[in-house]
Amino acid sequence: MSTIRAQQKFPTWPTILSSLIAGGDLDRDQAYWAMGEVMTGNATDSQVAGFLVALRSKGETVDELTGLVEAMLANARPLTIEGDRLDIVGTGGDRQNTVNISTMASLVCAGAGAKIVKHGNRAASSSAGSADVLEALGVRLDMPIDRLEDVLDAANITFCFAQVFHPSMRNAAVPRRELGVPTAFNFMGPLTNPSQPTASAIGCSDLRMAPLMAGVLAARGVRALVFRGEDGLDEFTTTAPNRVWEVRDGKVTESLFDARDIGMARATLDDLRGGDSAHNAQVVREILDGARGPIRDAVVLNAAAGLVALDASADGSLQERLTAAKARAEDAIDSGAAKRALQAWISATA
Fold first, then answer.
1. Above 60 in pLDDT, residue 15?
2. Which residues are involved in binding Mg(2+) 1 (predicted)?
């Protein structure tokens, strides 16, 4: 906690909730305090539920989301990894049960030479989360924290299991489960990677929350592409045009992008449907073995988004940069480099 925060008079739940109910916005420190109370178990289930519902009903702000994220990270188990590193992740919540596109895109980027520190968990709103699929592929998830950087060095990719790094989230589990509706917590996972990557490619299914997530990343000073399919998919998608928020130098630039503009065929949501973890793991193997079609296209597109976010130069238009990154992603698959990254990952975690 910062010295400024320590010196301030802390609010109370009645003042926080009264402000939100009246439609007032919290400042970053108030949001930080409230989330700190949740994370440390000092808030009752009623207070947690009231806070999440009041915040969601009013509509979150960048400052509020930033305060929540900072408090969550302050209560996470630390992980220090130096150098440029990338995370490719989605918020979930689109309820389309697609295959694990961001996981496959992460492997492709690792094959292309990027350092990937992936933050993920088991399935919440889909049939198979990243952790479920990686486990089915043979990646060991219960690695000691002090070995994760060694795994990264060996395979260009490592995994931060959310339930290991954020044990304090258990204090909100009951009210979240009993509420049964999306809250701010649903959008915090991609923003709370404990390694704090220097670049992120984030899919967000919620049109209102996507620019707020970009705003949090801009305030953090990292590079990112936040995107949403216009059909509601939390992926950089070939099924519809994409709304994109590019984060660079503390600024957010919004644009529209259609994968057809870089030579990709339009797909349907049915083309991208997945199944359980065993089914989705087999899809991963097939894509890394060179299978072509709509799933490969989606994987290549999301890998390209990650490579563009990681690239510090930003020379050329977004379309030009995605075109060049697409070629790198395709080569990582066709050369076998992405498959070798998975094999190295499995070996490094054995």
1. yes
2. 102, 235
**What is the structure's pLDDT at 180?**
85
pLDDT of 7 higher than 60: no
Q: Is 125 annotated as a binding residue?
A: yes
Write down the H helix ranges in the chain: 3-7, 13-21, 28-39, 45-58, 62-74, 101-111, 130-137, 148-155, 162-165, 173-179, 209-220, 277-288, 294-310, 318-334, 337-348
Report the percent of the chain where pLDDT is more than 90.
Answer: 88
285 is in an annotated binding site: no
| Residue 98 annotated in ligand binding | yes
Cβ neighbours of 14 (radius 10 Å): 9
Is it the case that residue 122 has pLDDT exceeding 90? no
238 labeled part of a ligand binding site: no
Higher pLDDT, residue 61 or 8: 61
What pLDDT is recorded for position 9? Answer: 59
How many Cα neighbours within 13 Å face the side chain of 66?
A: 18
Flag whether 61 is marked binding: no
Is 93 flagged in the annotation as binding? yes
Is 101 a known ligand-binding residue?
A: yes
The reply to whether 118 sits in an annotated binding site is yes
